[in-house]
Each structure stands twice: as structure tokens, then as C-alpha cells.
Amino acid sequence: MDIRDIAAKSGYGVGTVSRVINDQPNVSDRARERILAVMAELGYEPNSNARYLKMRSQTPVAVFVMGVGNRMFDDILGPLQAALAREDEQIVVTYLNGDVDEVRAAIDYQQARHPKGMVFLGGELESFRASFHEIETPSVLVTADASQLGFANLSSVTIDNVAAARSAVGHLLERGHRRIGIVGGNRASGQIGELRLRGAEQALREHGIELDYERDFEPCDFIEVGGYEATTCLLERTGDLTAVFALGDVVAFGALRAIVDRGLSVPGDISLIGFDDTAFSQYAVPRITTIRQDAARLAERAAKLLLSALRDGSPATHELVDFELVERESVCSL
Amino acid sequence: MDIRDIAAKSGYGVGTVSRVINDQPNVSDRARERILAVMAELGYEPNSNARYLKMRSQTPVAVFVMGVGNRMFDDILGPLQAALAREDEQIVVTYLNGDVDEVRAAIDYQQARHPKGMVFLGGELESFRASFHEIETPSVLVTADASQLGFANLSSVTIDNVAAARSAVGHLLERGHRRIGIVGGNRASGQIGELRLRGAEQALREHGIELDYERDFEPCDFIEVGGYEATTCLLERTGDLTAVFALGDVVAFGALRAIVDRGLSVPGDISLIGFDDTAFSQYAVPRITTIRQDAARLAERAAKLLLSALRDGSPATHELVDFELVERESVCSL
DNA sequence: ACGGGAATTGGAAACGTTTCCAAGAATGAA
DNA sequence: TTCATTCTTGGAAACGTTTCCAATTCCCGT
Question: Element (H or E) spanning B91, and its range?
């Protein structure tokens, strides 16, 4: 079933049929109508490969999820796909975990396929960076801030991580906490952890406290088990913590378990604050106070940015979306 | 950069170059070597659109995720993508929530693109069924059992849901529970909920108890909020429950919260058992006893099945993988 | 009724592959 | 050495579109 079959059956030429398919001007209403009717009757569907071959623009948008197990990304993926689908854009997803070489290989692989666009989900700029210099495809980074990097085609949408972390720690400070431990992420520059740490540091400093990275910080991956182990470690190291700031909700979740396993209670003995507001933090026992980062909104803005780059060739933009501290039950006043 | 450029530069014809690219026989070692060298030198990458156009087999594998918010599927997606990627197969993901028309439209849309294969993630057979009769593409259903349906190209990989549910409820029964409430899923046939309910019913009957669906069962979607509301409802309706069986872990998570919100404790007042063993159930407070359904294994088997259908045209198969009851802290003996 | 510009139309060429067929080269048996 | 196989090779045709150019038709002002 061809465009030629449609042409033959409708009595028009292939050119005209193609124009109808692509909603182009210079087609009489009569022709359009007739052709549409024939297409419907025959159940014609254009062959996307032929189309892309000719148009030279290509395969679907490639999405990279950097950090398997971080629920935040799962929450973004759905809305992102939906938003793009509304504009007829497909996504091809690749799940990656930290390894730089693996990331590199995956990006190369997808690049070779000439995706029309790319989306990177992940806070760890570092893992991407090595591959970024060659990126000419319109791309958007979600969750990691690419504004420092000067790539012409690299947009990003993110919250102000520094400010958010500052408000989280500020929240703890206001409630009288002075000995605050931090778990999750790591200090390497360009990592999202670094930004959040910087925010925490600022808040602390405003209260005249200097963050002791050796003692009060324990890095870990953004997965439950990471949070569990890091928190255990932290708790063993210093006995006087009254609050823990987890740099991500999955981490907070592991942290909660670790605290309870040491026979302590949240927030009775230790207050806990998370980051992201993934679905389960409002169902956890106790409900976890956290920084709300709206996954749907992030996804939607990312789609918007990508789409406008795709359609009108809009230049890269770095967009900030709002965050919000949502108070629940895991923090108490001292 | 063409296959023709490679041909010209290497001194061979396009036919030979194509054979080299596709690892076909009847190419001399000398030719192969030379052509490979030229390809490497020029950084040649085949154009997949041209290739697929010609080969008529097409675009990537289409994956449908039926039930946004059910973490189980997020856990399957990663390993599935990884397994398929190892064989150079891309996946295009579409996220869907229940609506039959939406599902229908999405499947039609993807079908029109002639994916070489399809994977359906979701327990709700019903939503798919309307679209299934036209499926000619090799497909596999993960988590829902398609063995009743007789589609030639429709494989499935799943655990024995009936047996698993029976063992879950059996576990409760053995510990002395007699008044057991059930939340999650629904009774419509072909739904995964129905299978799990059937298992529960069997276990109950073995102990001479008849399941009263009106009183002791409350259906809901597989998301946290569903579990929360359904459980609240159930608890309000009957005051004498000593245990709740949640038909999915996300549901269990909402259930836990609902129970606690009524001032009851788990497992002190009410024992809770889940289904799936998604990551957070082992971190919840208390840790949730559940049926382990190995997401990675499910994904891997699904990939295997799909791949063999793709490569050798193997016929549809219905595969059962093992489940396991994992005892944690949310169930106590009466 | 006529001329001219705009709107519509048809069809050939091109996109980058794979595949098929025919031809040429190599091998081995007699 | 010769003939019959088998291996290797080149190149044309085809996959189903879009796009461009030229040709036709239409419409309107005079």
C-alpha cells in the first residue's frame, strides 16, 4: 500500500498526495477531500522510513536515563513521553548507570542513528561531559544544569538546586537543629550533589556553622541501598546528629530505614528531610518532609524546549522551574 | 557519506560493501579487511532508514507500559532495555493508563510504524484485548498471562499469579489470621487482579473460609493513592480485620499509610502482605512481607522470547518464572 | 474576449540501502 | 590441460517517500 496506490485510486498524482499528507498548501479542497477519503478507505499509513530517508532528518528522540533506580526519573519519563507524543515524537530510551565509558558508548551509538533530538535525565553532568563536545543535535538536559557549559544546542531545565537545598537546611536550622548530617550524591563538580551541598553549606554558614565534609557528609548513589549504607556510616561516625538531609528522596528512604534500624525514631530522635518529592515520600511512615520538584512540570518544559528547537530551531535555553518545601512529619523542632 | 563512498574508496562495489556490513558470507578476507578499514577511516555509519526501508522490516521494538505509577514496571523497563540493547535492538516506549481507547489508539499508532516487535508491560489484559486480534508482529506480554488467548504471535512471561497469591494468603492463614481484607486490582476477567483474587480465594477455601467480595475486597488501581483509599474504605467497612493482602506493593504502601492513619499499627494491629517486591518494600517501616517477582528476570526472559521470535521466527511461548514469598516484618502471628 | 499572474497539478529524480542476477575468478578432479 | 564447480564480485533495480520544476488550469482585471 503505497502513496502511489492512493494517487492512482484518487486520480491525482503522487506529488499532490504527498502534499495532502503533509498538510501543505497549494492543494484544492476537492483534491484534499478526495485523497483523504481514499486514504481512509484504504487505511493507508505512510512509511516512516521512506519518509525519514528522504527528509534526512531521522529516527526518534533519544532519551538517556542516567541513574537507574532513582524514582525521580521514572516520574519524569511518563509525562515526557506523553508530551512528546502529543506532537508525534517518539522516544527511544536508554538506561544507564554511572559508568563514563558506558555513557559514552551509548551516546555514540545513538548519535550514529541521527536522532532528531536528545534528552538527558540525570543530575550527574560529569558522566555526560566527555561526550558533550560533539553534540550537534538539539538536546535538553533535565535535572542537571548545563548553563555553565556553553553548548549551542544544549538546553536544560532544572530547579535552582542551590536555593532549594539552602531552604531545606534552613528549615532544619530554623527548628533549632545544629548538628545536621548530609547523605547522598557526591562532591565532584558538575554533579547535582555538589550544587545541593553548596546550598546546604550556605544555609549553615548563615548560622555561623561550617560544614565539615569529613564528618557530617557521606556520599552515595541515588538509590535506597545507597541511602541506607551512607546513613548507617554517618550515624556510626558521629553520635550527636539531630537531623539528616538526604540529597534525594530515594536516599531519604534508605536513610529512614537506617535510622530506625539503629533504634532511633524519626522525627523523635532524628529529623529527616528529603529532596524531590517522589510519590512514596508522602506515604512513608512518617511522611517525609522534602523539597518538591515537580516531575510533570520538568518533563513538560523539557518537551517544550526540545520541540521548539526541533521545529523552529530555537537556540538553547536554560530554564528554571519553581521548587517548594513541603512540610510533613519527618522534621520536628528542637 | 555513503555506502558508495566506501565502495569507491575501497575499490570494491556497493554489493560487496553491503555484504561486509551485514556480515554475510561470500566475501574474501582481503575485501572484508580493506572495506572495514575504509569504513573505520571514514567513520562510516549506515543509514538505518534506508536500511529499514529496503528490508521492509522496520523501526524499533515498541514497548507499552500499561499502568503509569506502578513501580514494578519501572523496574522491568531498565533491564528489558539493557537486554535488548545487547542485541542492538532499540525500544520506543509508550506510557499508558487504563483507558481502552487510549490504549487502542497508541497501539494503532505504533503498529502503523511497523515495529519489528512489541512488548506489553501490564497486568490488565482487558485493556489490550480489543487491539490484540490484529497483532501480527512478534509480541510479548510481561506480567499478564496471555496463554488463554490464542494469538500466534503473542508470547507471555509471568509468574503463576494464582499460586503466588495463594501462598501469600496461605502465609497469613498459617499465622492464624482469619479475617483478611484484600485491596487492589479488580475482578474483571483477564485482569491480573482476578488471578490473584482467585489464588486468595483458593487459600481461604482450603481453610473453610468463603471470600466475601462485597465486604472484604476493595478494588483500586496499582498506585499508592489507590491503596490508601481502598484500604481506608475497607477498614471503615469492617472493624475486625487482622490482616490485609495488597495485590501489589505500591498498593501495600498506600495501605500501610492508611492503616497507620487510623491509629493502628503494622503488624501489631493489622498484618500486611504485598505483592511484587519492588525496592521500597524492604526499606519501608516496617519492612513489608511480599511475593517476590523478579523484575530483572522477567525482563530478561521477555527479551529472550522476543529476540528468538525476531531472529528465528520462533513461535509464541508462555513462560512461567518462579516467585518466592519473602518474609519480613509486616506479618505477625496471632 | 484576452492576457497575465496565481494556484494547482503531475512526474522524474533522489534519499542510502539490500538483493538479485549475471559474470568473472579460483579451485579441484579427471 | 580441461571442464565443472564453487566463490567472489559488480551493478541495476527496488524500497516508499519528498521535492523540485515544468505544465496546466483557474481567476480576474481590462
Answer: strand B91-96
Question: Do residue A223 and residue B279 have CB atoms under 8 angstroms apart?
Answer: yes
Strand order across the A217-218 sheet:
A217-218, A180-183, A243-246, A271-273
The residue written with cell numbers 519553581 in the block is A322
Other CB atoms within 10 Å distance of the CB of residue B37: 12
Within 7 A of a protein CB, which nucleotides of strand C? 7-21
Of B48, B85, B224, the CB nearest to A280: B224
Q: Per the CB < 8 Å rule, is A280 touching B253?
A: yes
The CATH code that applies to domain B3-46 is 1.10.260.40
How confident is the model over A109-137, as pLDDT tens digits? 787 777 888 999 998 877 777 777 777 78
Tell whether B113 lies on the interface with A, counting CB pairs under 8 A. Answer: yes
Q: What's the grid cell of residue B10? A: 575501497
* CATH numeric code, A161-293: 3.40.50.2300
| Rounded Cα–Cα distance for residues A273 and A40 (Å) | 56
For the stretch B59-114, pLDDT in tens is 788 899 998 889 999 999 999 999 998 887 888 899 998 778 888 888 877 877 77
Cβ–Cβ below 8 Å for B279 and A224: yes
Judged by DSSP in three states, A100 sits in: helix
Q: Please tell me whether any atom of strand C lies within 7 Å of the Cβ of B286.
A: no
- Starting at the edge strand found earlier in the chain, the sheet holding B217-218 runs B217-218, B180-183, B243-246, B271-273
> Counting beta carbons within 10 angstroms of the beta carbon of residue A163, is it exposed (0 to 12), middle (13 to 18) or buried (19 or more)?
middle
Q: What does the domain layout of chain B look like in residue ranges?
A: 3-46, 59-159+295-322, 161-293
A264 to A238, B198, B284: CA distances (angstroms): 14, 41, 15
Contact A100, A117 (CB under 8 A): no
Fold entry, domain A59-159+295-322: Rossmann fold (3.40.50)
Q: Do domains A3-46 and A59-159+295-322 have the same CATH topology?
A: no
Question: Do residues A91 and A67 touch, judged by C-beta distance below 8 A?
Answer: no
Contacts of B156 by beta carbon, 8 Å cutoff, 6+ apart: B140, B141, B142, B144, B145, B146, B147, B318, B319
Instruction: Map residue A214 onto helix, strand or coil.
Output: helix
Q: Give whole-number Cα distances, B98 to A67, A194, B124, B317, in Å.
A: 28, 40, 8, 26
Q: Which DSSP letter does residue B282 get?
A: G
Q: Is B280 on the interface with A (CB under 8 A)?
A: yes
Residue A30 CB in 7 A reach of strand C:
yes
Nearest residue in chain B measured CA to CA from A249: B280
Q: Nearest residue on chain B to A252, judged by CA atoms? A: B283
Nearest chain B residue to A111, by CA: B45
A124 close contact with B: CB closer than 8 A: no
CB of B55 lies under 7 Å from some atom of strand C: yes
Q: Which residues in chain B are closer than 8 Å to A52, comparing Cβ atoms?
A: 49
**Closest CA of chain A from B291, distance in Å:** 19
- Contacts of B199 by beta carbon, 8 Å cutoff, 6+ apart: B161, B162, B163, B164, B165, B166, B167, B168, B169
Would you say the pTM of this structure is higher than 0.85?
yes
Q: Is B329 on the interface with A (CB under 8 A)?
A: no
Q: Is the peptide bond before B115 cis (omega within 30 degrees of 0)?
A: no
Q: Which nucleotide is nearest to A19 (CA to C1')?
A: D18
Chain centroid offset of residue A146 CA: 13
- Give the pLDDT band (50/70/90) at residue A48: confident
pLDDT for A81-94, tens place per residue? 999 988 878 888 99
Contact A95 B112 (CB under 8 A): no
